[in-house]
Write a structure and sequence with these properties.
Chain lengths: 718, 718
């Protein structure tokens, strides 16, 4: 989807062009006429021959030529006819500014659906309705009724802003203008009848004017489309800084009360951003800061940060920030440190390097330290903190020179400058590809975000195979004749085992005699459970017993379970007992999967056992997934630490966990919409590997109106 | 300590006054002469009769009168003589700008100590050496060699900045100027030979020009003095916003490499800030932001926040931020919501209230919503988000009017405005006591910080009694004949029990026969341990056995323990066995105490058992402490959640834990410097209360040069 007619129209028609520039149909006329748009402007108004001093036509049909873009600013009831005319005329794109659609209720939603149908039927791009329009800052195209551009425009630049919300879009425009952020495009998507934020991101991937994308999302109707667009952007090396509101429960409630969109669970969005290499911002200020940084600077190729400061205390503050951000502070090479010490006896040559206020007398020492740090190869990024000196006129040339010398010495190095600078010096330093942040910790934060973005690249653009390499061909795909419905635990474990996900050793037995035999065979440490396809929570009805010490206790337990279940769940089919070896795990995990109508196959990985209730710690993965993503989640969940050496335990290799999650995710992806529920809790991790100690599996036929699971999952991949 | 001569001198002498205003002795002359200081200026230079066009005297002694303040700017070797002259002259305060003291090594440290001795001997206030001096913005007193004031000064205001670091101080001065933060004083303390940041905070508590204090600390030599000053400031209702660098290990390493101060453990500083109601900032920007907020606004009297926005999406973002900050978002009263809906049918009347972009047409609805929200009593704080509208000239008067109406309707309400505003409108809104933040989440953060500060007040200024009320008089104080040295576990448990801290039921026995008898008496579920005053880690030498099922196993265990300990620790005295009932705790805690030479008595509370090694979670408390502080720590550590209802457990009341921590802290405070170590790990929490299941206690005589423990601890209290 290139959206060329929307983003770069050579001619624009305004339907509902008004004489009054304060009106929704008048403002775009004024903005296009006054602010330098060089394409052709056509005005449509059946009641006037002239509007704002320009000729007006009675209808789109009456136009002598076909414009690229129609801006529709008529009242809601007239929009459908206007859009149909645009389609009939063969216009490439339409922006519907008018409100009164899905946001006002069911009738509006139906009207909006008709707009979408018209656009789809004619191959026309439709933006809106109920949006604030677009701007192309390079082409002075202001296809909006926001008066904001009249008060001044941001510089043309390489950053595109795409916002679902018009109010946010207007605010962002003003912030960009005030903060000196150069923009390529500004696009608001409103009700998203046909064109979503994801579609716009996808189009901007192919837009040569755009190198960085700021996206503001309230909720995505098509999560797979969002994933696809973010992955394409990452593959093209265009960072997407995304603000998705509704992180917390309170926020999600607020989002539901105000938007017509489906607001998905936040952890799912987080998974999408993590897995596609998108950069999430939690404040507006941070979104702009990171946008500016990605547009200006060089991402560090690793985590080794060098800090040179004129204030030891602020150096410490930056070291704190670097540590929080996961960056390392390797020392300066010994020879460089020695020479520095010779030049300033009281400086600190550790990293942070403190050249002290001495630079006001002998500035050369800053050049020496910075150039040597750049040249020595010990650092991927370098931050210079010059405090208030940057405000003094005499130093501006010196600073710019330092930055130029550092860039020459190490062109691939990521470089940031912090301190008070004039707007002029800021621009000069930025022109050398140097980040500039008044707050020193912001320089560290930006560099860390850029490093993560770069490092995530290879994995984010990797296409995870639905069949991981670790899985044998024999178990690659679900069997042709899938079981259906809620499986009993034995069948669930067997199904998972057929896919290469091992279970704890167990036997399915019919009666107490067989249970005793199984118990002996399993070594005398076992769990006894009722088997029934009708019982999800077996322990609630007395269907589980542990700690059985001898045959007598086992027989007694069989009888008790039968009696309890019969009494408490008389409808449940009783299909004998499961006798399973009791494992002594180092860690208990939980692993679940579901098919999300918006986002497709998802996997939930978390700490299992007591943690699930007491202090839930889970993380979502989009499926299929990759080893790097699984390892990152295991790290974040604290699982890797638990597998390490503590209290005399030998370390446990995480590879079997990673492979199990890969298989589980691949299975979820392959099952597609036929997946109702899969959950393993606990998944036991021992020194011998992993084993499912319980399984809930429910499968069903995929809904009729969806393509088959596997094709669906694969069609998402770029 | 009033520091009046330092903060408000009516006359100043500059020792080492130089003709060259670029020099350390010349800049203060220029600044005082040019920038409007109205006191008397005396210049001292033995080699010149005139300096920068003013008469110079050969020495302080030669002055016809006695100035209040001497600024000493001579080279390090000449400082001592100059300071002695100042003392002889009876001068009230001296600022030593010169460097070359403790920061350059031992000889410098000795010279610095002599300066401190001179000052103490004469009752003179001494600031520095190696500091950047002071400024009094109201009195145009610039007693500094920083050239920064020449480029412009911040407005006089109610915020004081005190910084240990001169480089940071200079940076902060420029930030205050650029950010429009009004200052009263600006003070840098440098090497702190005699006057520390804590001393300055203490003096500012009594300074009428100062309402808010921004403090930058690298490390405190006298932590008890810092606690005392912070507590006095809180009692006086003057917020202290403190940046203490070295939060992380990397930061602490950086701090150690550059400062001559002792940098204490960060968690101890955090405890001090928490317990005294100081507000910690982690970035410089945040310190200024919070300083401005406290200087401008009204702290909310509770956590109920109302949000009125023109953008539903940004409302959601603010709801996220409020949730992160622990603020609640109660709904608008039904009648107000209904009236709002009548006026703007498509607005959202939940909280956040979204009045939509409609306000550009009918602004009155914003007034209605804001005033009704203020008046209804449902909120402690109100945030208005107006996006970019604030930049439009036509709206400035409307906004100011809204703010005025809200202030009239509810004078005690905390009020914040977010959006783009001109500097002029910012000042106008702030004049009404309204916070102004461009970034909406910053408004939420500031309000939450003010709420926490206000709420912490009563507890922060409370003087915790060294003898908590929950403790009976009989066990109020440590026995006169304290045991000494490392106690064996039995003695340790007995000592704690004598102070009201219960132990798990146990018996101390000499041999296996007695062990069997004790085992029976304790109900047959017991832990067996060697007793020895020489073994800190008994399990390392085979000195602990659990899971003993019968008498035979117990006898065998006694023999094995004897043999193991004799083999692995032959020097250790063996004093029989401890047989202790094995408890089944809901939660295991750890509780430790130590005497810190800088901060006095400290208590460490944390999760016990496996968590100590795997995922340590601890929190420090200054001792003695209060129930509110202990409860806050239990909440933060996740203990309260573990005591709640989960997996069918009945909830456990936390009161016995709180009382035990209070007693433990009171004991630590009473023991004073005689406390070497006290540690209980684990402290078992069961439905029946708490019980120490292990104890390490080591006591010693207090060092000779310290006052007695109890007097020391009590003398800290205000």
């Amino acid at each position: 989807m290139t959206l060329k007619a929307l983003l770069h129209p050579a001619s624009v028609a305004i339907v509902g062009a008004s004489q009054n520039p304060q009106k929704i149909g008048g403002m775009p006329v004024r903005l296009l006429a006054e602010l330098g748009y060089r394409g052709t402007i056509h005005l449509i108004n059946p009641a006037a021959e002239e509007v704002q001093g320009r000729r007006a036509y009675p209808s789109l049909a009456a136009l002598p030529t076909t414009p690229d873009l129609a801006i529709i600013a008529v009242p809601a009831p007239a929009v459908e006819a206007a859009l149909r005319q645009a389609a009939d005329k063969g216009i490439g794109a339409a922006i519907v500014l008018s409100s009164g659609f899905a946001e006002v209720g069911e009738a509006g939603a139906a009207a909006q659906q008709r707009l979408a149908d018209i656009a789809r039927g004619s191959g026309m791009t439709l933006l809106g309705p109920n949006c604030l329009g677009t701007m192309n800052l390079r082409e002075q195209l202001f296809a909006t009724f926001s008066p904001a551009p009249l008060a001044g425009r941001p510089e043309p630049g390489a950053v595109a802003i795409v916002s679902q919300s018009g109010a946010f879009g207007g605010y962002a425009f003003s912030l960009a203008r005030a903060g000196g952020l150069g923009l390529s495009h500004w696009i608001t998507t409103g009700n998203e009848a046909a064109t979503s934020v994801a579609d716009v991101i996808d189009a901007l991937v192919d837009d040569d004017d755009t190198r960085v994308i700021l996206a503001y999302i309230e909720g995505a109707r098509d999560g797979r489309r969002l994933q696809q667009a973010l992955r394409r952007a990452r593959a093209a090396g265009k960072p997407v800084i995304v603000t998705k509101v509704g992180r917390t429960d309170a926020g999600a409630r607020a989002a539901m009360s105000h938007t017509a969109s489906l607001s998905g669970e936040d952890s799912v969005y987080q998974a999408v951003f993590d897995d596609t290499g998108a950069v999430r911002a939690t404040t507006i200020e941070q979104m702009f800061r990171l946008g500016q940084a990605f547009a200006t600077g060089t991402p560090p190729r690793g985590r080794r940060l060098g800090i040179i400061t004129v204030s030891g205390g602020v150096g410490t503050l930056m070291a704190d920030a670097a540590s929080d951000a996961g960056l390392a502070l390797p020392p300066l090479p010994v020879a460089v440190a020695a020479e520095l010490k010779r030049r300033i006896p009281f400086c600190s040559t550790a990293n942070p390097v403190d050249v002290t206020g001495q630079i006001t007398a002998t500035y050369e020492v800053m050049d020496f330290a910075a150039i040597e740090a750049a040249r020595c190869g010990a650092y991927d990024g370098l931050v210079l903190f010059l405090a208030a000196a940057g405000g003094a006129a005499g130093f501006a040339d010196k600073f710019e020179n330092t930055v130029r010398l550092v860039r020459e010495a190490a062109p691939g190095l990521s470089l940031a400058f912090s301190g008070i600078v004039s707007p002029d010096l800021r621009r000069r330093l930025q022109a050398h590809g140097c980040l500039v942040h008044e707050e020193p910790t912001h320089a560290i934060e930006a560099m860390a975000a850029m490093e993560r973005w770069l490092a995530a690249g290879a994995d984010a653009v990797a296409v995870p195979s639905p069949v991981p390499e670790t899985q044998s061909a024999a178990t690659a795909m679900p069997p042709k004749d899938l079981p259906s419905g809620l499986l009993n635990e034995v069948a669930g474990l067997a199904f998972l085992a057929s896919q290469g996900i091992p279970a704890a050793p167990h036997r399915h037995v019919r009666d107490a005699d067989a249970a005793v035999e199984a118990w002996r065979a399993l070594g005398g440490q076992a769990v006894l459970k009722i088997v029934s396809p009708d019982l999800l929570h077996k322990s609630d009805v007395g269907g589980v017993r542990v700690g059985l010490r001898d045959e007598e206790e086992l027989r007694e337990a069989c009888a008790t379970i039968e009696a309890c279940v019969a009494a408490k769940a008389p409808q449940a089919r009783r299909e004998g007992f499961l006798v399973a070896r009791r494992l002594d795990p180092r860690v208990e995990l939980m692993l679940g999967a579901r098919w999300d109508p918006t986002f497709g196959p998802l996997v939930i990985l978390g700490l299992g056992g007591v943690a699930v209730e007491l202090e839930p710690r889970t993380s979502v993965l989009t499926a299929p997934t990759t080893p790097a993503r699984v390892r990152a989640r295991l790290q974040a969940l604290g699982v890797l630490r638990r597998l390490g050496v503590w209290r005399g335990h030998a370390p446990i290799d995480e590879t079997p966990i990673v492979e199990t999650v890969l298989r589980f995710a691949a299975l979820a992806a392959a099952l597609g919409p036929g997946l109702r529920t899969m959950e393993i809790n606990p998944l036991m991790v021992t020194e011998d590997g992993v084993a499912a100690a319980d399984a809930v599996v429910e499968l069903g036929p995929p809904p009729q109106d969806q393509p088959s699971a596997t094709r669906q999952a694969q069609s998402d991949l770029p």
